[in-house]
Amino acid sequence: MLFDHCLLDLAGLNKLDVRKTQFVSCNLKDANFSDNNLRETELVDCDINNLMLYDTSLKNLDLSSCRFATLELESKTLRGVDSDRRASRYAG
Fold it and tell me: Which residue in 50, 33, 31, 30 sits closest to 41, CA to CA?
């Protein structure tokens, strides 16, 4: 599934199975992405500032092309994040 240039700010996208989904150039500011399965999900060039990611694993999720100052998440969410530098950026 592909979401391309979608305005999803403040969206309640929790408790979804979005495996194998691409979000390209989407606005996800202040959206709730909690309790999701993000396996094989791609976020490319998205605005994810203040995105809520509770009970959602970031394992293998590449956020390097996304724009954000802060994310809302739990420390257990960081399990499986590959880069220490990126993990410290997520944690603030």
Answer: 33
Residue pair 90/66 in contact (Cβ under 8 Å)? The answer is no
The pTM of the full predicted model, rounded to 2 decimals, is 0.80
- Beta partners for residue 37, in sequence order: 17
Q: Is 51 helix (H, G, I), strand (E, B) or coil?
A: strand
Read off φ and ψ for residue 32, nearest 5 degrees: -105, 110
| Predicted confidence (pLDDT) per residue in 6-30, tens digit | 999 999 988 888 888 999 999 999 9
The whole-angstrom distance between residue 18's C-alpha and the CA centroid of its chain comes to: 11
List of long-range contacts for 64-68, beta carbons under 8 Å, 24+ apart:
none
Q: Is the dihedral of CA 55, 58, 64, 70 positive or negative?
A: positive
